[in-house]
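Whiteboard transcription, Tuesday session. T.W. wrote the structure tokens on the left side:
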């Protein structure tokens, strides 16, 4: 399964010697019109600890970006076989001090060839470009709006992440992490990555977090989480992630009559904090829960 994770590292590890930028607006149209490399000043990292298993890679694509324009893509299929793997695409080194005291958001478009077959994307904030796979980083995916849903599998969706809390920190990279399984194959597509002071999700009624509401019923235990769902109508994608953004559980949930009591059982979860996300491309909600 592939997964995009956005992390922010807490200490400066390998940013010295690299010039930083305060603006970012990359649609890949010029740099990816031909060839399969990556844009200048962007970085790719593929972990080498998997031995002879082919490493996943981000590459330019000339016509699979949004609207059939150039973009980026990452796949877990090599020689007609899928592999357990991960691959990171890192933005140029970002410094946001010039935005203080305003707001700054990361905005990007994504879709996947088949969300239900696997293919998860996690967005990370990291200060280490040499080995983001093992560095200390912050997972930004749980706060992303809207959350990844099954609607991403067929249509391009514009996602936004609030980077305002990191305006006054040292320089960092945004890492798009693609993690796969060895049993299902899919492709993630990425386009139109930019920094902006405008949060578009606050002005899009079709992506209204108020339409769908979840609540945790009672105390959550390692093998039972009870969820109350209100204002729902139809099919939704539900996902439970840990604090690192790793997907613990994913299920298609039907809410037939606006309200539903839903139970997640038998996961044998470790004690700690988790994020429960649910959405369908029109409405969504994200809540925190504690397993004791």
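and on the right, the sequence the group agreed on:
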């Amino acid at each position: 399964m592939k997964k995009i994770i956005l992390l922010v590292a807490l200490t400066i590890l390998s940013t010295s010697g690299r010039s930083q930028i305060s603006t970012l607006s990359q649609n890949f149209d010029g740099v990816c019109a031909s060839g399969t490399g990556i844009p200048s000043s962007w970085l790719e990292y593929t972990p080498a600890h998997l031995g002879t298993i082919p490493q996943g890679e981000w590459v330019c694509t000339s016509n699979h970006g949004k609207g059939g324009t150039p973009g980026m893509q990452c796949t877990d299929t090599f020689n007609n076989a899928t592999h357990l793997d991960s691959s990171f695409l890192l933005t140029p080194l970002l410094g946001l001090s010039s935005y203080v005291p305003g707001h700054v958001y990361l905005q990007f478009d994504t879709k996947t060839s088949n969300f239900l077959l696997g293919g998860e994307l996690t967005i990370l904030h990291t200060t280490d470009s040499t080995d983001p796979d093992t560095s200390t980083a912050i997972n930004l995916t749980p706060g992303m709006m809207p959350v990844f849903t099954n609607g991403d599998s067929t249509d391009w969706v514009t996602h936004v992440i609030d980077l305002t809390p990191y305006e006054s920190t040292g320089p960092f990279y945004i890492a798009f992490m693609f993690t796969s399984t060895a049993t299902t194959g899919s492709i993630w597509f990425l386009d139109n990555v930019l920094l902006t002071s405008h949060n578009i999700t606050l002005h899009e009624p079709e992506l209204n977090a108020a339409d769908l509401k979840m609540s945790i019923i009672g105390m959550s235990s390692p093998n039972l989480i009870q969820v109350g769902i209100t204002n729902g109508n139809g099919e939704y994608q539900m996902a439970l992630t840990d604090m690192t953004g790793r997907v613990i559980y994913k299920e298609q949930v039907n809410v037939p009559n606006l309200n539903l009591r839903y139970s997640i059982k038998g996961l044998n979860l470790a004690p700690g904090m988790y994020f429960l996300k649910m959405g369908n491309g029109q409405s969504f909600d994200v809540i925190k829960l504690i397993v004791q």
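Someone added at the bottom: The two ends are 28 Å apart (CA to CA).
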